[in-house]
Amino acid sequence: MKTIMHIHELQQTIKQERYEGKTIGFVPTMGYLHEGHQSLLNKAREQNDVVVLSIFVNPTQFGPNEDLDAYPRDFERDQNVAKEAGVDYIFYPDVNEMYPNEPSITIQVTKRVDVLCGKSRPGHFDGVATVLTKLFNIVTPDRAYFGMKDAQQVAVVEGLISDFRFPIELIGVPTVREEDGLAKSSRNVYLTEVERAQAPAINEALQAAKARIEQGERNTSVLYEEIVSQIEEKTDGVIDYVEIYSYPELEPIQMLKGRIIIAVAVKFSKARLIDNLTMEI
Question: Catalytic residue at 37?
């Protein structure tokens, strides 16, 4: 495993790997790797000859009330996780490497961003799309891997790849869960003992809605009410949103058809948890 900090060096390295006929799998992250990231790396390792992991805390996706400097960093630990997963190259640039000058062109994401978590983070996905455009052009991967835990981000990336015709296969990797079904998250440590015991009810409500759909329910209002009722009954959390949209378009639907997403966000005393499921009707 080799750590590369400069764009030119990585591009030359990738060029050589491609000359030898190898496929490239890419996992873009902001570091502080956890089991969710590890599942992405494992999938990339399964499907490609070469695995590239990028670690870059991207300043352009942080809003004015979000503390960039407080974002957790532990590169030594990240290296250990990457090595265990069989990563070939870590791309670890600094801000000046990725943003050497004031940009002459900016990217604005106009769809799929004014709902779910994006509603309260204006401009966030503009920053995500900007850095991914840079990274996709630098790494030129055959496949790029993103966790379905953040299904909205996956939807935005799908739009980016499609609109800009990147020759990249987008792989959405299923959410990694605890044994009781709770989606794994670094935020789970902020739950009290009581809240931690209640939190699996979020996924239980989603699975109950899925079962109702499989039994023939197609009315989104009925499903919405049942999800809200279950979460309110079984947790002390405050529901931020329960939404049902077409996926990946993230547009409202009244009757279920095609591929859909059911997404939930619940606020506990010191943690806001998100979860979702996607399914084909």
Answer: yes
